[in-house]
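Reminder: ligand-aware prediction takes two inputs, not one.
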Amino acid sequence: MDVSEAEEVFPFDINPMYEGERIRKANLFAELGGQNKPSFELVLYEPDPEKIQDMVPPLIGPDLGEMEAGGAYAYAMIYKVYGKQIDKDLEAVIERRNHEYQGYIQGYMHLNQRAEIWVRISKEAVKKGLNSLKQIGRATIMLFKAELPFIEKMEATYITDEAEVVKRLAEAMKIYEARDVKSRGLHDEDVEEFYQCTLCQSFAPTNVCVVSPDRTALCGAMNWFDSRAAARIDPEGPNAPIPKGACLDAIGGEYAGVNEAAVRLSGGEYDSIKLHSFLERPHTSCGCFEVAGFYIPEVDGIGWIHRGSRVSDTPIGLPFSTIAGSVGGGRQVKGFLGIGIQYFYSPKFIQSDGGWRRVVWMASDLKERVKDAIPEEMRDKIATEKDVRDIESLREFLKRVDHPVVNGVVRAVDDVRITEGWGLKVAEAEAGAPTGAEAVVPAEGEPLKSIPLAQIMAAGFNSPIKIILKDADIHVGKIILKRRGEK
Ligand code: SF4
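Here is what comes back for the chain with iron/sulfur cluster:
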């Protein structure tokens, strides 16, 4: 059927209000992709309009009517697009909108991007008449053409046959890789503008997504070239340029223009963002990041785990899903950070915090995936779940491999160099010169209640003490808000 001629009445509602709809297990008819099955989505530009059909070809693999209720299936969505104004640079831009538009479909939950997609179809939607993924394909094409009128023809091939998805996924990975490599030769200092992305503000209203040449989007789907192409074709769309303005901190990646954008985009919630910092006013994280980073105060280092990792636990005892809960929501969270996989390849990768010299742990499947991004001298110094199980064994590992955090990593805060490191603090404490965290460590046998609360709080992330208030009534007489550094 020619979609452009169709006036199809779908058995489901289509409305932006369904964006962010979650389908829980109790209401799950079928799961496509996600943790257990291969999946991807891909948009390909077709320059010859004769080679593209404006339609949804037959599905390859079982359709909804042939699926077992509660079953999990592989899933690929491959779109070919044609339009006189379209070129190859727009492929990734159009591809990222699949998440947005499919989110409008009631009873169809779409999460993530590229080879991480996770779709759930609700029992309710099936009961109402959703009986084929071709209906989803036709609704998706209709939405794309309504929202992006420069798309003149669009063909949607959906695949649920697992062997076919795996075969085509290998080709898709090469295409993603080629897009990523293209952006690695350009750096923040080479351009006058960065780009914002507001797509995720529908569920993370204070999210300030800034795409720069050295910091690809945390969802991994948009690099600087993609964002520029999106801004040109759709100037009123979500990817407006951000003039860089004055550089306020070259190491941390702080720019006056980005700070202005932070105020505007977050509704005043944030006034400063450092693009290449983990611990000091970091980039906000919505829910789409490919990788979650977490600070480990006990060793003064940083760990990373990615979405879809086979590793169930980190040395801090939390799985990806729990860490993701701490990172997401469009917040600037000191000690947690969401990034795109490509950011590991950036020469400015968390350079404000010491870069790779600050990384102490990675999930083994992530470490393997980005091993060519890791500087050779650090490859054997970063632990995985195969080396350590908890903080104690992580400490032992770091001492054994003589990890930089043991002797001190140079961190730059507002262009001031500070040498930090868990080993340094321990050495200072042993030498009787308590600093930061050690200042609040009770002596052997000293009860915790004798440590002043203010002292523990002042140590912040460096404090080795966790305060858990149970059954507490808290009365606050007065709250005084002060800017950082204000007396
Ligand atoms: S994570 Fe950022 S770049 Fe990616 S879609 Fe969301 S707002 Fe856009």
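The radius of gyration is 24 Å. DSSP finds twelve helices and 18 strands in the chain. We will return to this case in the review session.
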